[in-house]
Design goal:
By secondary structure, chain A is mainly alpha-helical. Chain A has helices at about 5-10, 15-35, 45-50, 55-65, 70-80, 95-110, 115-125, 125-160, 165-200, 205-215, 215-225, 250-270, 270-280, 285-300, 305-315, 340-350, 355-390, 395-420, 425-450, 455-480, 485-490, 495-520, 550-570. The chains are: A mainly alpha, B mainly alpha.
Chain lengths: ~575, ~100
């Protein structure tokens, strides 16, 4: 088998054709931002793209905003570290929640005419709950944006030898410019463009990887040969009976209830980063179809993310110059980490031209993640923090200007957080910890408020606060005393990824229990005040008259059927 | 029963009706197609060059850049043709805004 001398140093020089492709990409995204500036005339244009997007654009953007470091580099690294178990974050950890968002929750977000998830909480539970969720969401977005910046800078360092600081500043200034100019419209349309570039650029690795190994069956044989207990890396369900029988150190209850229920539903139904894209839809039917369109593409993304991680297990440790990746915490100077698996494979397979496209795909992924966080931050800051708490009666033009400035400030704060990520053992551990802090309890608050009219304002506020504080408290507890992990995950064999799942599950339960308990000792709101906000007080809007094959419910069921089939095949 | 929005913001049609803004949406599919076509042509050129100057990558003999460039050019060209603004002005606005299914 041929090997690459370049891999020994981990650096490669881009050919002029690769540089041309990258430069054209930057020119295209900036050009789109300038083109859209003249179309952004009001705060509704800036923050909600004028609510004019069709289902396909909203759906692809919905998914692309999630395709940051999380999807590309982080999950390829996790697939290398944990094997095919990582696919759960795409299937059971995404699809049911996306279908639930589309068919159950989206009508309420849409007909309440809210501009954000904290905005919905204001309508449902009042100002205090809105302020709490707005501040926690703002903190999460700038931290997540930092993840994206670091991830991109790390790729540039491994592949091109570029300075980390240079990469962070170039990428973030570009995002700041095109989002500040065109607002959410610019972010969304750039995300659609980035979606196509990500697929085109990233497909190089699985195609050539399978050609080198001889196909899926031969790749599995290589993994079994290369790694101790290699077969445990190739099953999605059959190794989940006990914490010690799989590389992730997790049990099926953590995957099903922690990931598949709390974290997944929390992220996909209440994280404003993704929900904002769907709120920009032009009508209710588009708003319901968009997450379902996203769900079909989400199920396919393991092809360009998980499969490369597995290919890394099959090919990198063999040949004349074997490479053994390690966790960031154990890496010695010059040693490659799990996070390097995707760039290393790109250098291995992609010749000049395709290498430029592959690097562009990574940059596009990271920038779409950054832009998603920054545009969501600008909306929540302006509508849910600045306007209600600092300046209630300014003109629409003033809020538009505030949106542009908060975009730039959000990027600057994110740059600071990028340096925090460098100390995380794995990008994914950091991301999952953040989700369990903020998203898991928020899901408890939103879903209770949407489905049960009895829930009171006081119950929601204290439930959300206690859920969030308990999640952060558990994280610090384990940091101070690693043995606490065995208590939180209920097993001495649990590993950090399991901690996040059970931490999320506990914080959600604490949020729900406290919310319900306080609800029963406080006064509920009158039903007439809950119209358009809660099931039982709302007549759902008509989607229009369409054949059954064009209805969101049909495609939602189809997505679930395919999900079940995929899990059976890779069990 | 008519919906009563809880905010004072005007609520146009919450029943699937389209809004005037949609007609102003830019033709993003055309833009995507044009960029992919441009990339396809550039990478195809690089692939042809690599027939005489093979790159130092695994599977270099399979000419990945050449075939990748061909695929991108066909895909991007199809989008560019299908969503060309002058050719399909009316439907472009609908499709360009992602009117989808």
């Amino acid at each position: 088998m041929a090997t690459l001398p370049l891999l020994a140093s981990g650096l490669v020089r881009l050919a002029p054709v690769d540089m041309a492709i990258i430069v054209i990409y930057f020119a295209a995204v900036l050009g789109l931002g300038f083109y859209l500036k003249s179309r952004t005339e009001s705060s509704e244009d800036f923050f909600l793209a004028g609510r004019s997007m069709g289902a396909w654009i909203a759906g692809l953007s919905f998914l692309a905003a999630n395709l940051g470091a999380l999807e590309l580099m982080g999950w390829a690294a996790s697939a290398y570290e944990y094997g095919i178990l990582a696919v759960h974050w795409y299937w059971i950890g995404a699809i049911p929640a996306m279908v639930f968002l589309a068919l159950v929750m989206m009508p309420f977000y849409y007909i309440s005419r809210t501009h954000s998830v904290p905005g919905y909480l204001k309508l449902r539970f009042g100002e205090s709950t809105r302020a709490l969720s707005a501040f926690s969401f703002a903190a999460m977005t700038v931290l997540m944006s930092g993840v994206n910046m670091f991830a991109m800078a790390a790729v540039m360092q491994v592949v091109l030898g570029w300075n980390l600081h240079f990469s962070i500043w170039v990428s973030s200034i570009t995002v700041a410019v095109y989002v500040a100019l065109g607002g959410l419209t610019s972010a969304i349309l750039n995300e659609v463009l980035q979606f196509f570039l990500i697929w085109c650029g990233a497909l190089v690795i699985p195609i050539l990887g399978l050609m080198e190994t001889g196909g899926w069956g031969a790749l599995k044989a290589r993994i079994v040969n290369n790694i101790a207990h290699g077969s445990t890396y190739l099953h999605a369900w059959t190794t989940l009976g006990h914490f010690s029988s799989n590389p992730m150190g997790i049990q099926w209850t953590g995957i099903v209830f922690g990931l598949g229920f709390v974290i997944s539903f929390g992220y996909w139904t209440t994280d404003f980063l993704v929900v904002q894209r769907v709120l920009a839809s032009k009508d209710v039917r588009s708003a319901k179809l968009a997450p379902i369109i996203g769900a079909f593409f989400k199920m396919a993304i393991p092809l360009i993310v998980i499969l490369p991680g597995l290919i890394g297990l099959g090919v990198l440790a063999t040949g004349a110059h074997p490479i053994h990746l390690v966790s960031q915490a154990l890496a010695k100077p010059g040693q490659h980490t799990y996070n390097d698996v995707l760039p290393l494979l790109l250098v291995r397979y992609a010749p000049p031209g395709l290498l430029g496209l592959g690097v562009t795909a990574l940059i596009a992924g990271f920038m779409s993640g950054m832009a998603g966080n920054v545009s969501a931050f600008a909306t929540v800051w302006t509508y849910d923090i600045y306007r209600p708490l600092m300046n209630k009666n300014a003109s629409d033009k003033h809020y538009l200007q505030m949106g542009r400035w908060s975009t730039i400030i959000g990027v600057l704060v994110s740059i600071g957080t990028a340096y925090l990520v460098m100390h995380a053992a794995s990008i994914m551990d950091y991301v999952q910890a953040l989700f369990s802090f903020f998203v898991a309890p928020l899901f408890g608050t939103v879903v209770l408020g949407m489905l049960w009219k009895r829930i009171t304002n006081a119950g929601a506020f204290w439930g959300l606060l206690c859920g969030t504080v308990s999640s952060i408290g558990m994280w610090f507890w384990v940091k101070a005393n690693p043995h606490a992990l065995a208590i939180i995950a209920m097993s001495a064999h649990a590993k950090p990824m399991a901690q996040d799942m059970y931490q999320a599950l506990w914080s959600w339960l604490i949020c729900v229990i406290i919310t319900v308990a306080i609800t029963f000792v406080t006064q509920p709101r009158a039903e007439k005040d809950l119209t358009g906000l809660v099931y039982g007080c709302t007549e759902l809007p008509d989607e229009g008259h369409y054949p059954w094959v064009q209805r969101p419910a049909f495609w939602g069921v189809a997505a679930i059927v395919i999900l079940v089939w995929l899990n059976w095949v890779f069990r | 029963m008519a919906m009563t929005p809880p905010q004072s913001a005007p609520e146009p049609a919450a029943t699937g009706g389209e809004r005037p803004k949609e007609s102003e949406a830019p033709p993003i599919w055309f833009f995507v197609g044009a960029l992919l076509l441009l990339y396809g042509v550039i990478i195809l050129g690089a692939g042809i060059y690599q027939f005489w100057h093979p790159p130092h990558t695994v599977l270099a003999r399979d000419h990945a850049s050449f075939w990748g460039g061909v695929g991108l050019a066909i895909f991007g060209g199809g989008f560019t043709w299908g969503f060309w603004p002058r050719k399909k002005h009316h439907s472009d606005n609908a499709k360009g805004a992602g009117a989808g299914k």
